[in-house]
Amino acid sequence: MSKATRYGRNTIADKLFLLSEVILLSVSSLLASYAISLYFIPVTIEHQLINAALFSASVMLCALSVGLYDQKLREGQKGIIKRVVITLLFNAILLELIVFQLFPALHISSLYLAIASAIAALLISAFRALFHYHDVTRISRRRVLVLGAGERASIIEKRMRRNVDKRNFEIVGFTPIDGDKDAGIAEHKLARFDYQTALFQYVMEHQIDQLVIACDERRNMLPVEHLFKCKTRGIDVIEILDFIEQETGQIAVNLIYPSWVIYANGLDLNQRFKTNLDYKLNAVLAVLMLALTWPVMLITALLIYLEDGRKSGTSVFYRQLRVGIDGKPFYIIKFRSMRSDAEKNGARWASANDDRVTRVGKIIRKYRIDELPQLINVLAGDMGFVGPRPERPEFVNQLVKDIPYYNHRHNVKPGLTGWAQLKYPYGATAEDAQEKLKFDLYYIKHRSLMLDLMILVRTVEIVLFGKGR
């Protein structure tokens, strides 16, 4: 089986899943159109088909924004139904208040949209229950053999324990290699055989699709001839660093070696302008956001003033020094969510249940309303909409010393939201900073206009469900 065939197999289930949802959404729209045409007003076939395509595309965009297409979404059936309902509500708002206002000829009736949404809610919820909870995708998983059972290999074991982490693959076993350090991988997970003489035979007999090189010591330890023979037969051979990046959307900082930073594709800075949202687009988006959110900002400012600002005489805004692109400092602007004396004893990390946060502050922090004044920073060119979150100089100075490659996150402009905010839960410690760096480096390596747009759409999920910070 060729490499292309095997990787094609891994995407078949995903394509079938998307195609099935498109069909179900189209059917929902067509049934609603038919009902309207049968009992109320006639609707032409052309009109029905156009609305079916529009309805499907709009629902899928809204589904993306609430995380329904996140491959590692961890939700029970109730959580899935909740997100489906929110998706369809968003879709109704998008179509009724924007699309149909701009293109009134497309509008059938509000009743059509209600019927289509109700049918879609039933069909999509049932389909997702069948697809996910009966593990239909298992047939598409590639079989992986890890060459190594020491400290480096154990990172795969620790980071990918859950089934949702192994959606695209299954680990056949970890093969102990001479020179590996004991890392406590369970005996039943080890694949013991004479890898120096029987690796190719084992790979063929167990239908291995991918070999991951994860041994602690590789000098003269790996059977190069067998690995070459595997590659010529279409078996993928990949390093653990690339494997973790591919499967988790992060770069394992603790596995990086200096030459990787120089030779890795995607880290060259001359791509910044071409692949990142440029200033003009950021500025246009900031103006649009200000036009849409100014009532929320006005109410927020009033609530902060009434709760704390009136008594303390402190501004409703909070200016704080942060580190920007190329390490240049700038002042970030936020709504004040903490008491005026929050840092009387010096700078310290914020925490999830910080007692310095005011009552209004808890609400605006949860839904990221406190970040809205940073649109001014975007207009000033200090930040973009997407990028690593800027950190305080007091913390950066220490983090640069403690965490390898931390300074690389300053090679791009900081953002209002970022890949780490999508992928990592709320955290505010040095350990959390290291975990978030793994996602920030992945973003820097893979940044593109499409990735930025996807992050912007998915940020809606953070706002709705209070994920990340």
UniProtKB/TrEMBL annotation:
Q: Which UniProt keywords apply?
A: Membrane, Transferase, Transmembrane, Transmembrane helix
Q: What is its main location?
A: membrane
Tell me where it resides. Answer: Membrane
Give every Bacterial sugar transferase domain span: 282-464
Segments crossing the lipid bilayer: 16-42, 48-69, 81-103, 109-131, 281-306
Tell me what topology the record assigns in the membrane: Multi-pass membrane protein
An example of a Pfam family matching this protein is Bac_transf
Q: Does the keyword Membrane apply?
A: yes
PANTHER family noted in UniProt: COLANIC BIOSYNTHESIS UDP-GLUCOSE LIPID CARRIER TRANSFERASE, UNDECAPRENYL-PHOSPHATE N-ACETYLGALACTOSAMINYL 1-PHOSPHATE TRANSFERASE-RELATED
State the family named in the UniProt similarity comment for this chain.
Belongs to the bacterial sugar transferase family.
Q: What is this protein called?
A: TIGR03013 family PEP-CTERM/XrtA system glycosyltransferase
Organism equals: Rheinheimera muenzenbergensis
